[in-house]
Amino acid sequence: MDSVVPRIVLASSSPRRKMLLHQLDIPFDIRVSEIDETIQGDIPAEEFARRLAFEKAEAIARSLTDTIVIGADTIVVDERGILGKPQHEQEAFQMLQRLSGKVHRVITGVAVISTYLPQNALVNHETTQVKIAALSDRDIQCYIHTGEPLDKAGAYAIQGKGAMFVEWIHGCYNNVVGLPLFLLIRMLKNITHSTNMSCGHLLS
Questions:
Q1: CB count in 10 Å sphere of residue 18
Q2: 3 state DSSP class of 186
Q3: Quick check: 87 pLDDT over 80?
Q4: Which of 66, 74, 115, 149 could make an S-S bridge to 108, C-beta 3.0–4.6 Å?
Q5: How far is C-alpha 73 from the geometric centre of its chain's CA atoms?
Q6: Rounded CA gap, 12 and 44, in Å?
Q7: Can you give the pLDDT at residue 1?
Q8: 29 belongs to the catalytic site
Q9: Roughly what angle, to the nearest 10 degrees, separates helices 137-144 and 89-99?
């Protein structure tokens, strides 16, 4: 019996996650879940990222059958806690000042839910350390004026102009962009292993 290539849905509107998933040459659809992403400082950052990833995937998966749903959530964490997406330029400025000259963590929670029978769900996370160079107020203002920081966790984009401030990283680069592909591939392999399914030659 030939293996079945499942329908895959990405539960995210992020153009960066869409770009990364396209690299795998696996067909997928996009469905956006509307869940509350209010930062909760009373739980560990890793657990928070994993919880949001699962909630995003589960919100889409509950209305689908014969589908594998991928959810992800990326957060930036320093010694003071979680940094979300800045709501305005002043908040972006404060975030970049906070990260300037220091090492922080980027954590992406990933959830993969199969709505095939038997149903299954996997949740994991990836962590990357990032060192931002010491930034002057002028550096920060010039970057903010590009408009890039305003929809990014931690107010910078490593795949964009924000790369000029990244002194080094330790860990998965794609994780900082928004979707750790190596981790995702392992999770997809595991969730399809017990069924007669394949996600193409990358997962064979």
A1: 15
A2: helix
A3: yes
A4: 74
A5: 4
A6: 23
A7: 40
A8: no
A9: 140
Tens of pLDDT, residues 98-130 = 999 999 999 999 999 999 988 899 999 999 999
Please give the pLDDT value at position 4: 61
CA distance 182 to 160: 21
The residue type found at 95 is: M
Query: How many other CB atoms are found less than 10 A from the CB of residue 57?
Result: 30
- Find the catalytic residue in 29, 36, 73, 139: 73
Structure tokens at 106: 């980027």
**What are the strands, taking DSSP E only, across 2-119?**
7-10, 29-30, 67-78, 81-83, 103-114
Q: In the Cβ-directed half-sphere of 11, how many Cα atoms lie within 13 Å?
A: 29
Quote the CA–CA distance of 192 and 181 in Å, as a whole number. Answer: 16
Amino acid at 90: Q
> What pLDDT digit, counting tens, does each position of 172-183 carry?
999 999 999 999
Domains of the chain: 7-203 (3.90.950.10)
- Cα 146 versus chain centre, distance: 23
| Structure-token match 């002028």, residue found | 138
